[in-house]
Amino acid sequence: MKETENKGRAFTTLSELLERASALQTALTLFEWDNETLAPREASSLTARTQGALSAAYQEIMTGEEVGNCLKACEEENLSEKEQAIVREAKKERDELCAIPPQEYRAYQELIARSALVWAEAKKKQDFDAFAPILKQVIDCQKRFASYRAKKGQKLYDVMLDDYEKGFDMEKLDEFFSLLKRELVPFLHNIQKSGIEIEDAFLTGDYPEDKQREAAILLAGYVGFDFSKGVLAVSEHPFTTNLHNRDVRITTNFKERVDSSLFSVIHESGHAIYELGIADDLTQTLVGQGASMGMHESQSRFFENILGRRESFWVPVYEKLQEIFPCELGKIALPQFVRAVNKVSAGLIRTEADELTYGLHVLVRYELEKELIEQDLPVEKLPALWADKYEEYLGIRPQNVSEGVLQDIHWAQGSFGYFPSYALGSAFGAQILFAMEKEMDIDRLLAEGRICEIREYLREHIHRYGKLKSARVLLKEITGEDFNPGYYVSYLKEKYGKIYGIQS
Ligand code: ZN
Questions:
Q1: Cα–Cα separations (whole angstroms), residue 95 to 57, 63, 87, 140, 496
Q2: How far apart are the CA of 102 and the centre of ligand 1, in A?
Q3: N or C end of the chain: which has fewer CB within 10 A?
Q4: What is the whole-number distance in angstroms between the Cα of residue 467 and the centre of ligand 1?
Q5: What is the DSSP letter of 469?
Q6: Is the pTM here over 0.90, yes or no?
């Protein structure tokens, strides 16, 4: 289409408005990054005012009449696939912002800010009772907001789930999680009964921070994080921030257990590689981010677990790691290192969970969220139910609420429906792996230092599309079938069956 024909199109006007909104959003994202990494401690209250003003300006554009009129007029226009996707995302964002009356939304923002503080204090003091009343208020608000947005007959928890992973409602997730429960819980118990103890004491030791930093840079670069389009910083909890496909930032932190920081940097690099791979004509538009939360986790976990915990992954790079830590790893042979980083140990903390038990941590949260939202479970009952479920599925029981129900910040922030996407990501990754293995010999590519060919496959089939296609559509196109969690279970049982000598 010629320039002159573009003029006067509603979509062109819409694009200009969205570009302004996107610029404000980018500034907000940069502030979030800065607050977590470099900003001085005293800055927060004044910076928050700037953020508030930017956020209000963003909402004004998105909920304004101009965007509304353009979106309506776009319905009459002949739009390309990309334009249709942008209109779809703009409508979704606008509907979400318009659904909640501004006054209620402001009150909710204040509630959430308070609730995060109360949660942190309660966690420190191991005191669930101090957190329960405000958690109840957060849940009530979340349910009310979901009811504003629910389509006729739609369940409230389904509205929440839809925010994070389109097309995965309770019906679909019940199927998924009941499979995990049926297959993985007894499998884990067999591993626990096997009595096999994998030696991993050498992963905790004298791993100085500057050396861990060196290792982080080595591994991020090795998997394909492009330092000319990204930076690595240190923060309390590792995360990835993306401004556009020329600026994606990751953080890490350094732990006593070296594998925790090694694999966390590979994980965040996986998120970053996704964002860096988004096509140039999509970046800085509403479809210029990863397809969904779950698809994003599938990519970070693909690099971290499916690739990163294989022996072949380390063949080209393990010697370099040994050179960084000569005293700790110099005498540890590669197979011994790989065995140690694949040790299964059912723990209480989700963020420290191994690949096999991770899904069970999410299962506990899914079952409880469902009861909280759909069956009005009284919050007072959470600590005991949480502990019972951990005992049943993982075979261990938290001794206090800080290592139990208070460990995650998500509920304090009002994020209900978020957890399942973590487990879905692992399952998407396994399904994608089975399809890739039909086309390429992953172990050979890795051992020969050709990880770029694997990355290129993922870019070609997933990353470049951004939000143009949903996670389910991407899965179908790559694997030829709809989401099938059977692959995830097979992958885990085959891998860990071999490590622990257990028939699956
Ligand atoms: Zn992640």
A1: 17, 8, 12, 21, 45
A2: 31
A3: N
A4: 18
A5: S
A6: yes
Interval 185-206: pLDDT, tens: 999 999 999 999 999 999 998 8
Establish whether 42 is a catalytic residue.
Answer: no
**Nearest one of 91, 79, 109 to 10, comparing CA atoms:** 79
Res. 4 pLDDT band, cuts 50 70 90: low
Candidates 268, 297, 304, 328; catalytic one: 268
29 neighbors 93 (Cβ within 8 angstroms): no
Report how far residue 297's alpha carbon sits from residue 428's, in angstroms, rounded to the nearest whole number: 9
| Cβ burial, residue 155 (10 Å; 0-12/13-18/19+) | middle
Q: Amino acid identity of 421? A: S
pLDDT tens-digit readout, 256-303: 899 999 999 999 999 999 999 999 999 999 999 999 999 999 999 999
* DSSP summary character for residue 303: I
pLDDT tens-digit series, residues 28-44: 999 989 988 999 988 88
Angle at alpha carbon of residue 58, lines to 56 and 61, rounded to 5°: 110
Distance 271 CA to ligand 1 centre (A): 7
Measured distance between the N- and C-terminal CA atoms of the chain, rounded to whole angstroms? 58
The CA-based diameter of the chain, rounded to the nearest angstrom, is: 74
Query: CB neighbours of 222 closer than 8 A, spacing ≥ 6?
Result: 316, 317, 451
When pLDDT is averaged across residues 353-380 and rounded to a whole number, the result is: 97
For the cut 90, the answer to whether the pLDDT of residue 504 exceeds it is: no
Interval between CA 268 and ligand 1 midpoint (Å): 6
- Tell me: the pLDDT tens digits for 220-265? 999 999 999 999 999 888 999 999 999 999 999 998 899 999 999 9
Residues 432 and 298: beta-carbon distance below 8 Å: yes
Tokens describing residue 495: 């891998």
